[in-house]
Amino acid sequence: MDAIVNGFNQIVGWMPALLQSTWVTLLLSVLSVLAGLIFSVFLALGKISKNKVISGISSAYIFFFRGTPLLMQLFFIYYTLPQLVPALNISDRFTAAWLAFTLNVAAYLAEIIRAAIQSIDKGQMEASRALGLTYRQAMRLVIIPQSIKRMVPPICNEFVMVLKDTSLVSIIALTDLTYQTKIIASNKSSALVYVPAMIIYLIMTGVFTYFFNKLEKKLSVYE
Amino acid sequence: MSVIKTENICKNFGSLQVLKNVSLTVEQGEVVVIIGPSGAGKSTYLRSLNRLEKLQNGKIYVNDELMEDRINGKNHSPITKKRREELLLDMGMVFQRFNLFPHKTALENVMLAPMHVKGMKEAEAKAKATELLERVGLGDKLDSYPAKLSGGQQQRVAIARALAMDPKVMLFDEPTSALDPELVGDVLKVMKDLAASGMTMIIVTHEIGFAREVADKIVFMYDGAILEEGTAEQVFNNPKNERTKQFLDSVL
User: Fold this and answer.
1) pLDDT band at residue A223 under the 50/70/90 scheme
2) Per the CB < 8 Å rule, is B112 touching A141?
């Protein structure tokens, strides 16, 4: 009994540090997905573009960032890039991590968006064109609004993946939840700290999944 | 004045020739019904008129203006892209599968193109859309989403949507083929009213009774070519071509 009470007191004592690092994890995930989302729309439209150069560049980008490990990309941006191009020395760990995650997640989101857009019945584009809408208008007013609902579940998945993958940044010593947990574990020589850390991750993914599900329901209003 | 005129238009899907020198003239106010067996090229012909299908060869005139002049797939027409877009607006199209925008209400479906293509003000577009939907008998469904409407109702919204752009000619691509039999009548009635109001129409359909009733001209297509054309009286009662006779025997 004493051991449990003791352990509980220990965990309470670690909470301020854990919660502070949780903020870093959360901020990194949200900012990466937001920036990645904006970038990915261009990548997705680029990949389905009839212009061979644009679609080639978009495809190559997506191929590269989905085909190499995220951890390597993180190393590349934080260590290799400054060596190759001194002007691109990102000394701030958070910025480097954010850049790596944004570039990576954009490639995955682009494929989600492309698939959603291409899943819309081609009769929708035909009807739009027959009514005189331009390709861009048809995309903006007809195709993309319909595809958004289909994007929400996979984007939610992707967000949850990113939230968990941010634990990789502990490798460049950015004090996220995982890195803080490791510090506590080695300083206090107690592996107990992994329990509250995992619960915090679980609460975050749970809360986000809950709200994404609500959003999905709200978007299906016209069906 | 002809609204639509095609001269020797040809279209291939790979090595398959689906349109073989199709020439047809549609006069102002005329209702032309295209009949023929599946795979005859009827829908492809209709879709090539408003460029949903690209042609290999042939000419398309809209209001006597040369819109398409294709030689081996390349367009030699003298008109600008802007003018072509304008000519295309003279054609309204109704599809077999309706193709309504599912994320918009009936009213919004009809308002969309007038507002974004013609720059019409919202209030004006709304008044016009309401009037058109009332005309097709859907005055009580203005705020319904397509998923809440029957197939016949959806197709009538689609007709109203096409009419909202004030086309000079309406193209109907098997407008009742995807409908349950009991819903066909409402759609045909709207089309009959439209024909009676003087609209120029080109209709691909399997509804022979309807064709007999409204068509000024019947065109029989077979294997990518027009084999016979004439009044309903001529084609239905005295078909000259053996293929036409066979086809009519099979459907009547």
Assistant:
1) low
2) yes
